[in-house]
């Protein structure tokens, strides 16, 4: 089994002072893990987070980036700007961005490509809504999110990309997918990557689960054969709880 990649998605939480306190608390708690630890902070906390985590095993990610290198895109941030300040990862296509900010598979694809071209490692989010699951459309939705979201992305780029399967009905709701639901959905996603990139690449690809993952359910989810890590929202805001998720799986 692979070591896991555990990423915290702070969403629109934590000011600079809280960022400093969190990182100082987290550092000793995760220093011995073999899993990869990432915190995805608001833009304004990134530079601080990069400085404070230098020389540690904690990596820093943003929560979005634009697809253009520069230009008239008021309020947006280019991938190269993130790269310049030492950011390594970037979440793309989170369901909240799809829901509230008009993100589509096409814009996810454009942002992912731009992030890769700038040398960032994207964490590309996919997942079905409750209505889509209940009406039997889950597989169709996931298949098109993958096909359209990864169009034109080559094998080398795929190796620098992480996928997060996050069923929308489990995000921030306290309802976690069961271990089996999460494992089955991720197995289905991996099958799509087998078709697009071949078995070898698809097996190497990291696919995380996200959606109400926390200190109590993490170890069960991370034991599943298809689940290569977690994207953690609410439970990533507290250093101790987040560390428990990070340390939940040992190879
Ligand atoms: P949650 O969020 O852990 O609070 O459900 C996960 C996410 O949105 O990435």
How are the elements arranged and paired?
Elements: E1 5-9, H1 16-30, E2 36-40, H2 43-53, E3 58-62, H3 79-84, E4 89-92, H4 95-100, H5 105-117, E5 121-126, H6 130-134, H7 138-149, H8 155-158, E6 162-165, H9 179-197, H10 199-204, E7 206-210, H11 218-222, E8 229-232, H12 239-246
Parallel strand pairs: 1-2, 1-8, 2-3, 3-4, 4-5, 5-6, 6-7, 7-8
Helix pairs in contact: 1-2, 1-12, 5-7, 7-9
The chain binds 2-phosphoglycolic acid.
2-phosphoglycolic acid binds next to strand 8.
- Biggest sheet record: 8 strands, parallel, barrel
| Unreliable sequence segments | none
Residues in helices, as a percent range:
40-55%
Mean pLDDT comes to 97
The total count of strands amounts to 8
What structural class do helix, strand and pairing data support? alpha/beta
Give me the CATH architecture, please.
Alpha-Beta Barrel
- What is Rg? 17 Å
List its traits:
single chain, 251 residues, alpha/beta, TIM Barrel, 15% strand, binds 2-phosphoglycolic acid
Tell me briefly what this model is.
The chain is of the alpha/beta class and 251 residues long. Helices cover 44% and strands 15% of the residues. It has helices at residues 16-30, 43-53, 79-84, 95-100, 105-117, 130-134, 138-149, 155-158, 179-197, 199-204, 218-222, 239-246, and strands at residues 5-9, 36-40, 58-62, 89-92, 121-126, 162-165, 206-210, 229-232.
